[in-house]
């Protein structure tokens, strides 16, 4: 699968990187697109948000089990199936970040909502479209409905008793 570019962020350690873009809305990063994909940015600046599918090329350890303790349940040590969580150790380590578009200039997209390590490969970039992406009503989110995530929460924060 071709990589279209790489993100530049201040994050270099998985344990100190926020667990989701939505839990770190203020921190900015930059997507640097490869030259052959720059033309594809035409029209993107008119959107408020975009999906960044990424290849999580540096998980802290490879997939060992289809049940794991999610970062958000570390204190409870509660196991969940890999498909009921959003952690980086997956059969295919594909990340999905919903980021706010700050600016599109040349081959770069400046965005807010950093949850990726510096240098993470990006597989694609797709605008968020409310009519297609926001489901109707108030859909249930399983065990996530019982968890509160503070702004900027990292795996490291979740490893210590609170």
Automatic annotation (TrEMBL):
Instruction: Quote the protein name from its UniProt record.
Output: tRNA (N6-threonylcarbamoyladenosine(37)-N6)-methyltransferase TrmO
Among InterPro entries, the record links this protein to: TrmO-like_N, YaeB-like, YaeB-like_sf, YaeB_N_sf
Question: Where, if anywhere, are coiled coils annotated?
Answer: none
Is Magnesium among the key words of this record?
no
PROSITE patterns xref list: TSAA_2 (PS51668)
User: Taxonomic classification, please?
Assistant: Bacteria, Bacillati, Actinomycetota, Actinomycetes, Pseudonocardiales
The record's family statement is: Belongs to the tRNA methyltransferase O family.
Q: Which domain of life, per UniProt?
A: Bacteria
* One Pfam family linked to the record: TrmO_N
The residues covered by the TsaA-like domain are 1-137
Keywords from the named record:
S-adenosyl-L-methionine
